[in-house]
Amino acid sequence: VQLVEYGGGLVHPGGSLRLSCAASGFAFSSYIMSWHRQAPGKERELVASMSADGRSTHYADSVKGRFTISRDNAKNTVYLEMDSLEPEDTAVYYCKAIRLQVYWGQGTQVTVSS
Fold first, then answer.
1. Per-residue pLDDT tens for 19-45?
2. Cβ neighbours, 10 Å, residue 22
3. What are 102's strand-pairing partners?
């Protein structure tokens, strides 16, 4: 089982990034997928989640209207489009797969700074 995130990096405030999480080794299309983040000194928090069929989404209040989660079950990949980024969005971003088991990726760093 693998979840590999990529697409993180350094971006200026107001900028955009698109994170991807490529999954393998399990039935991706049957799993709820979510993105979480952890900033230094803070607990890991849920950012966004999407149902297995892609019909239902949930967002943290802090990212509503700025972030969009999506998935491509044919490519076993979940995405997080992040727009209007703020310094407060700086964190390590992790993807998570949930069904009977729970799988985590290793994380990708997102830094928002001028």
1. 999 999 999 999 999 999 999 999 999
2. 16
3. 98
Question: What pairing do the DSSP bridges indicate for beta strands 77-82 and 45-50?
Answer: unpaired
Query: What confidence score (pLDDT) does residue 92 get?
Result: 98
Q: Please give the Cα distance from 25 to 2 (Å, whole number).
A: 6
Residues paired with residue 85 on neighbouring β-strands, in sequence order? none
d(CA 37, CA 29): 23
3-state secondary structure 38-98: ECCCCCCEEEEEECCCCCCEEECCCCCCCEEEEEECCCCEEEEEECCCCHHHCEEEEEEEE
The two structure tokens encoding residue 23? 């999954």
